[in-house]
Write a structure and sequence with these properties.
This protein is of the alpha+beta class and 138 residues long. It contains 2 helices and 8 strands, in the order ββββββββαα. The two termini are 27 Å apart.
């Protein structure tokens, strides 16, 4: 059994990560889950949320937006729509997006076509703010 996981994260635009890590924690569609070396093979979906990985005593965080995770042979492949590291999140922009989504949701009802899109925008903004607020490595 390997002592590390090979973590690869890819978006449609680019490869975001290719790292040897000790563990990961991901926002699964059915709840948060973790993966350590030797984990049982797994294929699952991700929801919008905070993704983290640990290298030694350092923990790194990313905001991810919907995707898939495959765990096999001490390798974790993450395919997501978007992924932003702490350093690449513009906190002011994320807060502005949160404000816009909150304001728009106050004007809508669940019957409106735009309602669910605004809920998703609100969730993405909240996760981006949470990840940006981590203030560096955990």
């Amino acid at each position: 059994m390997a002592q590390k996981l090979k973590l690869e994260m890819v978006t449609p635009a680019a490869q975001v990560l290719s790292e040897e890590v000790d563990e990961i924690a991901a926002p699964g569609s059915l709840g948060q889950f973790g993966v350590l070396p030797g984990h049982t093979p797994l294929l699952t979906t991700l929801q919008v949320g905070e993704f983290s990985y640990r290298k030694g005593s350092d923990v790194y965080y990313l905001a991810v937006n919907w995707g898939y995770v495959e765990v096999a042979e001490d390798r974790v492949l993450v395919l997501v729509e978007t992924a932003e590291t702490q350093d690449h999140i513009d906190l002011a922009r994320a807060k502005a997006a949160l404000g816009r989504a909150e304001a728009r949701l106050r004007e809508l009802t669940p019957a409106d076509k735009e309602y669910h899109n605004m809920q998703a925008a609100l969730q993405r903004a909240m996760v981006r703010i949470q990840v940006a607020g981590r203030g560096g490595r955990g």
